[in-house]
Automatic annotation (TrEMBL):
The lineage of its organism: Bacteria, Pseudomonadati, Pseudomonadota, Betaproteobacteria, Nitrosomonadales. Keywords: ATP-binding, Nucleotide-binding. GO terms for molecular function: ATP binding; ATP hydrolysis activity. Gene3D superfamilies: P-loop containing nucleotide triphosphate hydrolases (3.40.50.300). This is Nitric oxide reductase NorQ protein. InterPro entries: ATPase_dyneun-rel_AAA, CbbQ/NirQ/NorQ/GpvN, CbbQ_C, P-loop_NTPase. Belongs to the CbbQ/NirQ/NorQ/GpvN family. Residues 30-164 form the ATPase dynein-related AAA domain. Residues 177-259 form the CbbQ/NirQ/NorQ C-terminal domain.
Length: 263
């Protein structure tokens, strides 16, 4: 559980997403955020929770996640059984945000538990206790996913996705990405510019087979290592090259891009 924040996490906005999120929250609409990994989806939700002064419960979804992991289960302790709320139930009871990260990783029979919460009913029936929780006005459901090609087959059930207002996140433009690197790591302007240039060149590589391209997160890692005094090439090798590929040839091609700037 994360208690309501007193300090706003650092978030560099791209457009009208802060405004849209507030309108959605005020009007009890759930929000879906889609976009590649490491472009600020999770940071944005943490920022909004703090801005709206709401507790946030984050669940990293995976294919073994069950409805009980979200809603809760009976546990045994001191010779008796007692009910333990899952993160979704807690968020409903407290009127906070429940954020399901990478929701397409969860099985469809798990995600159906959010349906009655994600439309006008705003209820959470808890079969095992017989309770039906009515979500307070401040409760909000937020889900995110990465529509990259590895998720192509999984997708989201239309009956689930059509319950959400959707926001698309993408890689920031150069100016915004530089601000993110400087704001997040305190690195100097030249380092930020160079790293953003490398990130953009890496993303533009056409003949290199990568499952995911370089995210802002990886550029942040490189900036942290450089700011801390590491050699820029070694910092980029560790964050931008080796984190993106295991293939030696591909790694060499990526390193060429780094060397063109820092070599
Ligand atoms: P996602 O949830 O999209 O995978 P995150 O929100 O975890 O990505 O972002 C990864 C990291 O990148 C953050 O921890 C932060 O350092 C940085 N970052 C990306 N976008 C932003 C942004 N708009 N403002 C501030 N930091 C950002």
């Amino acid at each position: 559980m994360n208690a309501p924040h007193t300090e706003l996490p650092y978030y560099e906005a791209a457009g009208n997403e802060v405004d849209l999120f507030e309108h959605a929250w005020k009007n009890h609409l759930p929000v879906l955020i889609k976009g590649p990994t490491g472009v600020g989806k999770t940071r944005f939700v943490a920022y909004m929770a703090a801005k709206l002064n709401l507790p946030i419960y984050t669940v990293a979804c995976h294919d073994d996640l069950t409805a009980a992991d979200l809603v809760g289960r009976h546990l045994i302790g001191d010779g008796a059984t007692y009910w333990s709320d899952g993160p979704l139930t807690r968020a409903v009871r407290e009127g906070g945000i429940c954020y399901l990260d990478e929701v397409v990783e969860a099985r469809k029979d798990t995600t159906v538990v959010i349906h009655p919460l994600a439309d006008h009913r705003r209820v959470l029936p808890i079969d095992r206790t017989g309770e039906v929780l009515h979500a307070p006005s401040s409760f909000m459901l937020v889900v995110s996913y990465n529509p990259g090609y590895q998720n192509f087959m999984k997708g989201m059930k239309p009956s689930t996705r059509q319950r959400f207002v959707s926001l698309r996140f993408d890689f920031p433009n150069a100016e915004r990405e530089e601000s993110i690197l400087r704001g997040e790591t305190g690195c100097d302007e030249m380092t930020a510019k160079r790293l953003v240039g490398i990130g953009r060149s890496l993303r533009a590589l056409k003949d290199v087979d990568l499952e995911e391209v370089a995210s802002t997160r990886l550029l942040v890692y490189a900036a942290i290592l450089i700011r801390d005094g590491m050699d820029p090439v070694e910092a980029c090798r560790a964050s931008l090259v080796e984190s993106l590929t295991d293939d030696q040839e591909v790694a060499e091609a990526l390193l060429e891009v780094v060397l063109a700037t820092f070599g």
